[in-house]
Amino acid sequence: MSSLNTINKITFKQKMEMYKKRKGSLAVRMLVKLSALITFAVLIYIVLFILINGVGHLNAEFFSFNYTTENVSVIPAVINTLVIIVISLVISIPIGILSAVFLVEYAKRGSKIVNLIRITAETLSGIPSIVYGLFGMLFFVNTLKMGYSMISGGLTLAIMILPLIMRTTEEALISVPDTYREASFGLGAGTLRTVFRVILPASLPGILAGVILSIGRIIGESAALMYTSGTVAQIATNVMDSGRTLAIHMYLLASEGLYTDQAYATAVVLLVVAILINMSSQTISKRIIRKG
Amino acid sequence: MKIRENVMKYVFFLAALVSVAAVLLICIFLFANGVPAMAKIGVFDFLLGKEWKPSDIPPLFGILPMILGSVYVTAGALILGVPIGLLTAVYMSRYCPKKIYGFLRMAVDLLAGIPSVVYGFFGIIILVPFVRNTFGGNGISILTACILLGIMILPTIISVSESAINAVSSNYYEGALALGATKESSIFKVVLPAAKSGILAGVVLGIGRAIGETMAVLMVVGNQARMPKGILQGVRTLTTNIVAEMGYAADLHREALIATGVVLFVFVLIINVIFSIIKNGGKNR
């Protein structure tokens, strides 16, 4: 490709001559660049607007431990969010990893059961969060009588992030070279030992990147939690308590219209978390590429 | 040793069946709670009824306004999001200097990572006044939701289209260039047609995201349960119908909301099937 480029290298002047003859091409070129500019500008605008207008509203009161209607503190919501993250991950990481191992290492490729699992995982990842919320309300809250609680919300989100963890783990497992497997089998290890001692450790960074993305989805989720973990503004002291997460806190502040300043501040917190999560998952995937 | 291998094999298998069980459970619970309500209201009265008045006597549960609301908002989001997203994908795949690529990639990933409530807040603060001042009306409208959703589906469209464009063999592109075509006609007349099915799959995925989006839409679309009257008027979508009223609904009203969820779920399943047909069709070729 690079040699081709040097042969075809034309000066700016020649390029302009060519475009003079082909006005349509020039217009299309402009449109392409304009679109990329729009995409980039929209993102920068959203991020900068919220950061610049919101940073000023971050103050000690907003981060006080106890929620009152005066300070509408964000801390209880942060703690509840962490609880939900832990519950969902504890359930979905083992199930997600084990199912990915089954799909990649055990099942015959293209068998009916593998296709069925693939199709259902794809279906799960396409279901909108409000439908998860409805299901969580019908199943966990009402049928299993867990009520509006951390555990109902956590279980609902565990199902929601399961396909994401499955897919990223699957990709990580597939990217482990077959020579690893052959070497392990050659040394006399069984499939089980090979999976746990050789393949999973080698695919750890990929799995981790998937987990980080899942954390991002949990933090940003609101529709699935409104009617499962509820909207109580206090810290949930045990898993059967109801409590709002950060995203729901943000929604309630913004839609009530009384707390615009605090809504700005919460938006800053959510945005900074989203940026951090993005950066860390990217750093990890870059490391994988470098290693591979 | 042998026993442990066999036992673990079944453990892996059982774990893999969890996602199958989850889909089954979701289907069973949604349908079991929603379908009887549809039968009670009457399937045609429910799907094609133009009035949603749950507190009237007798109550009216027609969700046609919400179905149309979802369709309009999604269509508007596609009109805005698909061209910009596709052209951005072309830029990233064929024009972008290597140095900028990293930034752009990160920008697209971040667009996908911003929570929908933050988008919704941005919509309230910026887009609503913008639409009010530029186009008139009170700003809380179908158009506002379209712009916001158009932004929100960009990362989906860009990522899927970009990988579809990258998957086209470079022979096509170089062949067209060698025949004297400009870079632009090589891309738009040769590469993009070859990447058609991948791009289409991205658009379908974008439809799925737009139709299922709840909180951001709820915050800017006004949520009036009436037939859409114009793009500067408010409307209600299937998703916002559920969140807005579930908090206080009881009895048949509550079941009608779950039935709304069933309709949404069926829409999404159809979109999923279309997506996998397009994707697999592209693979076989």
From TrEMBL, chain A:
SUPFAM superfamilies: MetI-like. PROSITE patterns: ABC_TM1. It is a multi-pass membrane protein. The chain crosses the membrane at residues 30-52, 72-104, 116-140, 146-165, 198-219, 263-281. GO terms for molecular function: phosphate transmembrane transporter activity. It is found in: Cell membrane. GO terms for biological process: phosphate ion transmembrane transport. Keywords: Cell membrane, Membrane, Transmembrane, Transmembrane helix, Transport. Residues 78-281 form the ABC transmembrane type-1 domain. InterPro entries: MetI-like (IPR000515), MetI-like_sf (IPR035906), Phosphate_PstA (IPR005672). It comes from the Bacteria. GO terms for cellular component: plasma membrane. Coiled coil: none annotated. It holds the Pfam family BPD_transp_1. Belongs to the binding-protein-dependent transport system permease family. CysTW subfamily. PANTHER family: PHOSPHATE TRANSPORT SYSTEM PERMEASE PROTEIN PSTA-RELATED (PTHR43470:SF3). NCBIfam families: 3a0107s02c. This is Phosphate transport system permease protein PstA. It comes from Parasporobacterium paucivorans DSM 15970.
UniProtKB/TrEMBL annotation, chain B:
The chain crosses the membrane at residues 63-91, 103-128, 140-160, 199-221, 256-278. Signal peptide: none annotated. GO terms for molecular function: phosphate transmembrane transporter activity. It is a multi-pass membrane protein. GO terms for biological process: phosphate ion transport. GO terms for cellular component: plasma membrane. Keywords: Cell membrane, Membrane, Phosphate transport, Transmembrane, Transmembrane helix, Transport. Residues 67-275 form the ABC transmembrane type-1 domain. It is found in: Cell membrane. PROSITE patterns: ABC_TM1 (PS50928). Belongs to the binding-protein-dependent transport system permease family. CysTW subfamily. NCBIfam families: phosphate_pstC (TIGR02138). Part of the binding-protein-dependent transport system for phosphate; probably responsible for the translocation of the substrate across the membrane. This is Phosphate transport system permease protein. It comes from Parasporobacterium paucivorans DSM 15970. The lineage of its organism: Bacteria, Bacillati, Bacillota, Clostridia, Lachnospirales.
